[in-house]
Amino acid sequence: MTSPASRPVPPAAANPLNLRGAVDLSSLKQRPAPPAGAGAGRPPAPGAAGTAPGEPGGGSTGTPLRVDVTEANFQELVDLSAQVPVVIALWASYSPGSAQLVDVLEQIVESYEGRLVLGAADIEAFPQLAQAFQVQAVPTAVALVKGQPVPLFQGGAEEQQVRSLFDELLKVAGANGVTGRIGAGGPGAAEPEAPPLPPLHQKAFDAIEAGDYAGAAAAYRQALTEMPADAEAKAGLAQVELMGRLQALSAAETDALRGRAAQEPDSLEAQLAVADLDIAGGHVEDGLGRIVTFIGRNFGPERETARVRLLELFDVVGTSDDRVAKARQNLARVLF
């Protein structure tokens, strides 16, 4: 197995289309529980007696938001991902950085106060999982949202990078109706029921659940007609419009679009399409910068069309995001 990458791969988590499942996990579902004693040699749950120093969880008091992944409980985590995103950290004893990364992820997941759950998976004890996720090196982090895998990163990662990935993961999860929170008692604990969504917002979420992005957009537009200052409806509209634009694209078409954009820097259609792909793939700075560059090179109606799309993508990323603030500054420079 190759050595871990030196920096994280940009997240596919930002791409709602990844929830359609590029990785087949069906072989891991509904597996029978291992016979008694089959788990010998695996590290116990975090904080359990006998956890060896250097193994994830060693010396920890444990957390209910951290679960050690086994063949017996994997399906439960898949099911749980319909309520909250489940971050799977794949580690191995032969990888020096694995234990440290799992411990860091555990602390970060705790800070999200139940909006995420961490599953630590020893690929030596559960090799089928590494095969299913097509793991090339450890440590590797993958998320599950509604039972579908979303690649996060491979190798080490700084805390701020991880937090940025998790923030984007939660945005995508929310756009797909995964908005739960685990109570203080852990994954099985009851949580106070969230207040109901406004009717049009609920209609939009129901449409997203059904894959009807046009219907979700119509509901959000109606909400904005009734209340133009509805920031959540505005952001939701921008997100589902992006999802709708990407919904019908195949892998071959995305490759062709990127080639065309490289060859035709002044093609509005190509630059906007690739900016969508960049944002959806987690390359936020690249996507926003691509449109800013186009605006700086072009004038007339196409420039205004690009500016409007850029503002919509600001809403997708989040107007408080530092990368949006930087893109706003760059936009002001090219406009004025």
What does this structure look like?
- This protein is α/β, with parallel strands linked by helices and 336 residues long.
- The chain has two domains: 12-175, Glutaredoxin, CATH 3.40.30; 199-335, Serine Threonine Protein Phosphatase 5, Tetratricopeptide repeat (Alpha Horseshoe), CATH 1.25.40.
- 47% of the residues lie in helices and 8% in strands.
- The chain is built from twelve helices and five strands.
- It has helices spanning 74-80, 96-111, 127-132, 159-175, 199-209, 213-226, 231-247, 251-263, 268-280, 284-297, 301-317, 322-335, and strands spanning 66-68, 86-91, 117-122, 140-145, 148-154.
- A five-stranded mixed β-sheet has the order 1-3-2-4-5, with helices on both faces.
- Helix 6 (213-226) packs antiparallel against helix 7 and helix 10 runs antiparallel to helix 11.
- It is globular and about 60 Å long.
- It starts with 65 loop residues before the first strand and ends with a helix.
Strand content: 5-15%
CATH topology of the largest domain: Glutaredoxin
* Global Rg: 21 Å
Overall form: globular
The total beta strand count reads 5
Helix content bin: 40-55%
Helix count equals 12
